[in-house]
């Protein structure tokens, strides 16, 4: 079974599902950011697995996975900066309690 696509897709499905459940259930902004990272990692594993088992030998899945890692790093940097600013101003990072975000 190690030579098949199914274990990779199952792991990808588990990561994406846990990430989506975490985004929908949790209200802490840092936990939501971690769940977004889980979703992106699941998509990367999916792309790499499909690239490995594809018929042609192109490296498009690897290129897209590297792009996703770079996008995740940029997204994390910007999101953590915003979370720090929100915490400094409101003393709270609960997403439901942040109803007024006017400048």
Task: Characterise the protein shown here.
The structure is a single chain. The protein has 103 residues and is mainly α. It has a single domain, classed as Helix Hairpins. The protein contains three helices and no strands. Helix 1 packs antiparallel against helix 2 (29-52) and helix 2 packs antiparallel against helix 3 (60-90). It is elongated, with a radius of gyration of 17 Å. The protein starts with 5 loop residues before the first helix and ends in a 13-residue tail after the last helix. 11% of the residues are buried. The mean pLDDT is 87.
In short:
Helices cover 73% and strands 0% of the residues. The chain has 103 residues and is mainly alpha-helical.
- General form: elongated
Q: What fold name stands as the CATH topology?
A: Helix Hairpins
- What summary fits the major beta sheet? none
Mean pLDDT: 87
Structural class: mainly alpha
> Kindly, what is the distance between the CA atoms of the first and last residues, rounded to a whole number of angstroms?
55 Å
Helix content: over 70%
**CATH class descriptor:** Mainly Alpha
CATH architecture term: Orthogonal Bundle
Uncertain runs: none
Got a strand count? 0
Q: What fraction strand?
A: under 5%
Number of helices: 3
Keywords:
103 residues, mainly alpha, Helix Hairpins, 73% helix
């Amino acid at each position: 079974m190690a030579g098949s696509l199914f274990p990779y897709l199952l792991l990808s499905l588990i990561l994406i599902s846990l990430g989506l459940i975490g985004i929908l259930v949790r209200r802490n902004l840092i936990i939501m950011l971690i769940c977004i990272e889980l979703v992106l990692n699941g998509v990367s594993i999916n792309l790499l697995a499909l690239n490995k088992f594809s018929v042609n030998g192109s490296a498009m899945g690897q290129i897209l996975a590297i792009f996703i890692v770079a996008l995740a790093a940029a997204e994390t940097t910007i999101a953590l900066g915003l979370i720090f600013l929100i915490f400094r101003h409101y003393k709270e990072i609960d997403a439901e309690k942040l109803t007024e975000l006017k400048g």
